[in-house]
């Protein structure tokens, strides 16, 4: 998958799987902001969580995420530790973290307290070189699956 396919894959995956509560992780604040804005423009109830957001706004955003007003929380690793939200069904690593510890903390946001959760990493030419480090740091071999072709089809605008 190329980097240019990532957004289409994310948007289609969210829609096809009817995902109602997911955290999508990016590595940089500007990437997080850009992705949250793009999802919002495409009608996904999304919000941003990064270190540049004031604490009072973070608290409000988390309340909205918990209550279901927000479907997708697009976050930097500021949300990877210490945030406990029941019912997060999916964690999507839109970008692989540069440290394997961050990967472990990110995926720990789903499947909490005995609940089932899904963790997905979108690896492309820009970050696939990080896979061996994540595997070594976690002791787990990541299963590489190519997305179904229909998930890479351009997003159809409503008519």
Helix and strand succession? HEHEHEEHEH
Question: Which homologous superfamily in CATH is the superfamily?
Answer: P-loop containing nucleotide triphosphate hydrolases
Total domains: 1
Average pLDDT across residues? Answer: 88
Number of DSSP E strands: 5
Arrangement of strands in the largest sheet: 2-3-1-4-5
Which structural category do the helix and sheet elements fall into? alpha/beta
Jot down its keywords.
single chain; 159 residues; alpha/beta; Rossmann fold; 5-stranded parallel beta sheet; globular
Write the layout of secondary structure elements.
Elements: H1 6-16, E1 22-25, H2 29-41, E2 46-49, H3 55-67, E3 72-75, E4 90-93, H4 100-107, E5 118-121, H5 131-138
Parallel strand pairs: 1-3, 1-4, 2-3, 4-5
Quick structural gist:
The chain is an alpha/beta fold and 159 residues long. It is built from five helices and five strands; from the N terminus they run αβαβαββαβα. Helices cover 33% and strands 13% of the residues.
Fold and architecture overview:
The protein has one domain: 3-Layer(aba) Sandwich (Rossmann fold), CATH 3.40.50.300. Helix 4 crosses helix 5 (131-138). The chain is an alpha/beta fold and 159 residues long. Helix 3 (55-67) links the parallel strand 2 and strand 3 (72-75). A 5-stranded parallel β-sheet has the order 2-3-1-4-5, sandwiched between helices. The longest helix is centred in the first third of the chain and has 13 residues, at 29-41. It is built from 5 helices and 5 strands.
């Amino acid at each position: 998958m190329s980097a240019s396919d990532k957004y289409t894959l994310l948007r289609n995956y969210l829609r096809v799987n009817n995902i109602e509560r997911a955290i999508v992780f990016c590595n940089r604040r500007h990437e997080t902001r850009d992705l949250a804005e793009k999802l919002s423009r495409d009608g996904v109830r999304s919000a941003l969580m990064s270190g540049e957001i004031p604490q009072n706004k973070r608290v409000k955003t988390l309340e909205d995420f918990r209550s279901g007003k927000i479907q997708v929380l697009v976050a930097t690793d500021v949300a990877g530790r210490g945030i406990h939200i029941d019912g997060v069904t999916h964690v999507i690593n839109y970008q692989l973290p540069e440290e394997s510890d961050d990967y472990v903390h990110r995926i720990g946001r789903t499947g909490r307290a005995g609940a089932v959760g899904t963790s997905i990493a979108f690896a492309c030419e820009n970050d696939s070189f990080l896979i061996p480090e994540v595997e070594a740091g976690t002791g787990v071999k990541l299963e590489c699956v190519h997305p179904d072709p229909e998930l890479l089809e351009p997003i159809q605008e409503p008519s």
